[in-house]
Amino acid sequence: MDAADASLGRRIFGTDPEGYAAGRPGYPSELFDHLVGVCGLGPGTATVEIGPGAGQATAGLLERGAEPLVLLEPDAALAGLLGRRFGRHVEIRAEAFEDCQLPEAGFDLAACATAFHWLDEPASLAKLGRILRPGGWWSMWWTSFHVPGETDALYDALTPILAPILPPRPSGEGRAVDFSHDREGRTAALEASGAFVGPSVETFRWTLLLDAARARALFGTFSPILALQPNHREQVLHQIGQVLDEQFAGSFERTCETIVYTAQRR
Length: 266
Known about the structure:
Blueprint: H1 3-11, H2 17-23, H3 29-39, E1 45-50, H4 58-63, E2 66-72, H5 76-86, E3 91-93, E4 107-113, H6 121-131, E5 132-144, H7 153-162, H8 183-193, E6 196-211, H9 212-219, H10 223-226, H11 230-247, E7 251-265
Helix pairs in contact: 2-9, 6-8, 7-11, 9-11
């Protein structure tokens, strides 16, 4: 991750915080049950969440007992939204994880939902090793709004619209694996950090019903689309809505996949 990418990740999602909150769905309850069973999440679990955005994961952590819960959100607009949503139940720091001062061995659990790819991986894992208590847990996860490598008619129909916007895939044979689904890469990084043991990976599948408005709202939260000029962005979102209406009779039930990595502090 270069400095330009990191800077984009810190500011682009707060362009329309209310729209981001409405457009981006939360995570399946099974994921938080997994954190309870594997990481010991429960009442009184001292937790830090990196890059909570509009709080899609924050609500699940609070419901399972995370307390105190420190939120590190560098975007001031999103930090303000988090304050309105969760108030006194959380401590909000409008700082990036890389820059903030946190107590050593101060947390039982650290979590990052759909944001860790914006960070420098080796440096961040080293810092996590310092702020987690021995035996504490690190968890990071991402959602793909289609299952990578599997047939998805909506994915195919939207490819002509989205391909010119998305970053180019590396050249060469085979399908490129993105950061979140590179299981070997993420596991190897955890092991190479020297701070963690027993990294594991789980996936959870769930469905999301999209109509034209819901699809526009969802795709309007993705960074390549947010980075477009307003007129171009509106054109792309309009085309996405048209595809739902004209090719799928107004709705499409999509299979989504959330992948979660966990590892324990030595």
